[in-house]
Amino acid sequence: MKKHTSLWYFLFTAPILFVFATVVLIPFFIGIAYSFFSWDGLPLNPKIFVGFGNFVKLFSDERFLASAEHTVVFTLLSVLLINALGLAFALIVTTDLKVRNTARAMLFAPYLIGGLILGYIWKFILGDAFRAIGESTGLRAVFFNWLLNPQFALLALIVVSTWQMAGYIMIIYITGIQAIPEEVIEAAHVDGAGFWRTLWSIKFPLIMQSFTVCLFLTLSNCFKIFDVNLSLTNGGPYSSTELFAMNIYREIFNLNNYGYGQAKAILFFIIVAAITLVQVMITKKREVEL
Question: 15 exposed, middle or buried (CB, 10 Å; 0-12, 13-18, 19+)?
């Protein structure tokens, strides 16, 4: 019986494993091999073995280091804002608010819009619309084309990414909050705990699993963001919003440095994997079993 069941498991999972191996695993290992060569991507041109030369070159690449700095700033601010807003939304829509279901749908809706489309919509808002508002109201200190200012362009990227992901993260926090037994909350109220004491001492420890998932998703997504970066700012102005993924894309497809670009991608993968694993390990230790 067990052998028969295992055969069915294999039959159902084999297509998925085949696709995963073909689309993810095999290209990943081929990419690792390419990172040790200097190659322009043309099949007829030779691949020159350079060993770890591509990886050494990374640490003197000013543009790559600048993109790393932009990515770190963008990720830190976005993760904080997305999780803070997502949690705040979740706390609001899990109350006795009459329009809570409508509010959930409206807050989640931005996540359903594709990143490229979202970027083009906000490009109009933060560019032409903001400039028109500034000219008509005289508030040019706030309402101007954010995308032409290096500091405000990165802020615009953070705002758009937060607006897109906060509703999705809200859903995960809602799940965690609704899983808390009502008796625990009622016992805290009987003992005289107010809203903030209940929040810090009861709800936060009991939704730590949601924190683990949300921090993992936001960290990995913010580090890897590309579509919004491409459509909203295209890395400009003056490469002030060129993040990790866009820098790698341009190295490979614009400059035709396949080996060097692949070395960047491998380093990028190691950094993101290390940071997310450390985050999961830290938050997992703080989880409370219900």
Answer: exposed
Q: Is residue 90 part of a domain?
A: yes
Q: Is 89 helix (H, G, I), strand (E, B) or coil?
A: helix
Contacts of 12 (CB under 8 A, 6+ apart): none
Domain residues for the domain of 108 are 61-285
CATH of the domain at 168: 1.10.3720.10
Domain count, the chain: 1
What is this structure's pTM?
Answer: 0.90
Residue pair 259/35 in contact (Cβ under 8 Å)? The answer is yes
Confidence label for 3 from pLDDT (cuts 50, 70 and 90): low
Q: Which of 131, 128, 110, 133 is nearest to 228 (CA)?
A: 110
In a domain, 1, yes or no: no
Q: Which of 248, 252, 229 is nearest to 157 (CA)?
A: 229
